[in-house]
## 1
Amino acid sequence: MLMKLRTDGRHRRGMLKALLLLLPLVTMGQVAKTVSSVNPNVLPESTYPYWPAYRHLETEDLKTIRAQPWITKEHTIDGWDWSLPGHVEPAEKSLIGLQRIMELDKDYIPLNLNFKANGVGLLWVKWRDIEVKEGIHDFSKVITRIQQANQVGLDVTLRILTCSQARGSGPKASNSGDAPLWLENCGVPLLPRKSPQDNLNFDPAHPEFHKRYLKLVEELAKSGIPKMVKAAYVGYASHSLGDEGIVPFKESEAEKNDALPHVRERLDAWQRAFQGMEHKVFMGGSSHYGFGKGFGVRRGYVEMYLYNIPNPDLGQYVDQAGYLCVDENAPIIKQRAFNGEVNEEYEQAWATAERRYRFGATVNSFPYRYFTSTLRALQMRCTYIHTTGHLIPEMLPYLSLQLGRTVEEAPDVWTFLRTSFMKAANYQNNDKSGRPISAVEKTEGIPIKNFERWLYQRDAKGFETRPAIKIQQAIKMGMVQDDKYFDYIGRAGKRIDFKIDPRWPARNGAMAVKVTYLDAGAGILQLVHNSGKAVKEQLLLGDGKLKSTTFMLTGLVPQSMEQDFDFVIQGGKDTEEVTVSMVRAVAIMQ
């Protein structure tokens, strides 16, 4: 039987590590019985051969991470290639959350990063610590903590938690809440909760709560803090830790939510507090009224890497051929607003009964999920990510240089040639465009093809491909088609076409094309461009390894290939097909 763990963080991590080491001593039948009783969605254990073994890096370990070296000549390596030229700097609007403080008396530590990043510290503050006595607002400790973060080289994003009277249940639950308990004497009612483990929240819509909340935001403005922080979060009542969301009803009911006076007045207050700095404000969910003010949004579940498909507010939709696309006219992308995600659930605790084996019975799948979630966040054009675990260290420097990019300033463009299958009903429930669903999609699921950033692959006549390299998912994700709980991480074909977004300036200059492929059979992999007159080749050994090869290109003639493609990856003479997982075109500064 799994023991109940203490809540002390350091002790808890140590106990969890010891527990996981002991798990092999338990019979498989006992483990299966325990897991199935806690989380019936856990799938049988799979293997993840193309990613490193699980190794969780703590904040103190960030100084050990370095970017993957950039190599200036053609070469081939085992595994993935996350390298970028040394001249690449983080985008101005990029932020990456690397350290979170939830106690005002705790210091941020120096990170001593050995890679380039616009790193920020997350500062979570309780309203009850700011306004201990009604009407007396004291931001001095918040200011001190911001200044201390600055002293160790960190900017700060601020999150004031306002709604919970208590977290969970029990005699000490009210001590863990965020809202001032004196609100109880003001006649503010509590919202019902579904479970004793949920937050017990005051009702933000109640007039007595609302006027005091508006006063809190007004005093925040007077404190000078809006000018001191890099960004600030505004949320709403939620069942989980923190003020999640932004509105009381489903986000899909945009008109209903935006018509509520108290929702509009809350957002108006934040606009006044950040006048001229509206780009700093990010919401816990989508509000069209907030987007109209230039506010951004931060979601928080990218570990389930197929969520938010579709989502018109984020520009996410699937075309009729099944390709996952991005509508860059969505306000959050077009206005270059704060566009955030959280990618953090990689501690060993997530593979224990304490947290219901949320992502499987072991941590074996965690590096794969981290890999896929990181690429999904970039596919969504995120400007910000709070990330932890760093299970593939080379990806963190790459991520820090990719956030906040537009196609005009991107150091590379890429496509990850993956496929998953989504339930048609799930897609329709969130679709505003009325995308037709075929009979096949209704019974077999909608194929979700490719994560892309301005490099596109589309099957066409003579360029047909099939999904390849099957990887089983760790759990049954709710949006995935029944009995298709797997991903394909590549495509196989005789000829695979690619087109670079014509807005990418580097398309006409020197570039390195990095092809990650499965060396599945002996033969030749070719990159062909300039009407087929230019050919690069890589020998295939058939050793079954995943590899990345780099081709150096100069003088690429855009759209010179068949059907206006920019280049083609194909099997050479006597090579029936090639299997490709990811392709990146990287700009080389002359």
## 2
Amino acid sequence: MKNIYKHIILLLFTALVSVGCEDDLDRFPLDQLTVPTTFTTYQNVQTYAWSFYSVFGTYHRGRYDKGEHAADLMMDGRHRTGNPWLWERITVPTNSANWTNAYANIRKVNIMLDNIDNSEMSEKEINHWRSVGYFFRSYAYFGLLEKFGGVPWVENAIGDSDTDVIYAPRASRDVIAQNILDNLRYAEDNINEDGEGEGINSIGVNAVRALISRFGLFEGTWRKYHALGGESQYLTACVDASEKLMGDIQSLHYNYDELYNSTNLKGVTGIILYKEYLLGQITHPLNQWTRSSESSFWDYTKKAADMFLLSDGTPVSADTDFVNREKDPYSEFRNRDRRMYYCITPPHQVVGRVGGDAKAWEHTGDPKHREYMDLMETITDETHKMLPDINWGGLVQPITPNFKAAGSQPFLPWDPGYNTTSTGYKNFKYFSRLHIAQAWVDEHDEPVFRIGEVLLNYAEAKFELDDFDQTIADATIGELRTRVGMPNINLSAVTGAFDPERDPSVDPVLWEIRRERAVELMADGFRFNDLRRWKKMDYAAKEKVGRYIVASDFNNKLHVQGGAAEGYISVKEEGALPPAFPAHYYLYPIPSNQIVLNPQLEQNPNW
């Protein structure tokens, strides 16, 4: 059963955490939570701390605007103007939620940290709540660090008289990163192992280690590829935390799709922490966006599709016949990594609107059209990804891919405006049939930390420390691939010729480690930061294309790359390719109002 009370409690703290000084708090009625009454007992502190959990949850459009569309594997297929990060349209903002929300969360945590020593709790209980506070403060500072670099470090809740803190300059990246790591190590040593109790979805030692794993990899590789130095301690921290998690969490959940399309992730193998959703309490619109007229917002690129290996474990670029196979979507999808079928809507066609009913359909009679419909029956069920594709209200989409350009399907007597795509690769990952005819009220839970990410962090960090071998590959990439019926990676076969499309500046083995990360975390919001930490945003500063088509087959309403009669769909901004990614864009600009308020803040270079 879900912890519904958590969601209700979040509403109780708005007054407390938004008040600027203790004098105002003292005016609260005695039957309401105030600083003197909140931080007294374990239960009171626990109630206050539930408000910290609101920082989790990215099942909304923003994760794709910032975390995916600005990278190389996804795009907003509705527009041709290009992502502002790639077209140098980012300007210094006056305000930024990235900054203000992070510091608001830090203040909430610091209020608790400043008051728990005077509580009635035991030393162990105080250390536990200090650890919880350190976790959430580190989580906020990690978000600031990955965007802005060095920022002001605030150790305590700020009052009006704390001018030395209010007008403090930025701490260096070294200081912020070290403080995050130190705080997380303290939390690992002092937090209750099971958080708020066994079976309760809360921060415990494994969640702390998962954050160390994520942060350590990011900071270590950022330092290496941006030539800052000092990467070893962060990569080692990632390895150490990941090894402990791999020893404690024995296996992956057997069904990749269920990680993202389950109404309850409680007790699911490999889930370390998750965001809970519940009808009537807290919901999200993610599923709606994948099966409506908004769906082309979620397009994958051809590069994303090609990331998925063939079922024999080799890349499509190594298949000399693939240049012919990819001309037909049915052939292109055949014998691929199963995760491709979960992430990209497989091609299929049915006869729709049977008897005038938009929800009724029947097979066309052509075996080709039902190949992936039959396949999906073997790897999913009626509540998840069964085909044919349907919109949020249950209306059948009779053909996939269904291209966005109106009337581009000449063989259909009508042109459904839903479940469309501009590239031919529509996002299927967050599609399910859990809720039909219910708009904007999806309740499938969201994984925050899971062992699959930890395995990827571990593999990459071990390689960066020159300690990656077949044994490590078996325990990481091998585990992820075995779960989806793919062969394990054989490092002896991964030479410079293994993938002809490999970036030649990247080691062949590291390239495959990064490929596995891209596939396993496809559309999860990691890719933009991955390219930033690798200093590889040049991957995104290239023309994004879709699947191979013959333009005349679609009434010449789909633009082919270079204006050719056939080739890859081009959805670029007309007439140009993105410019080279500017070096200063790797860090976000600090909002101008913060510099006005605190003249000692220095803007990031070249903004």
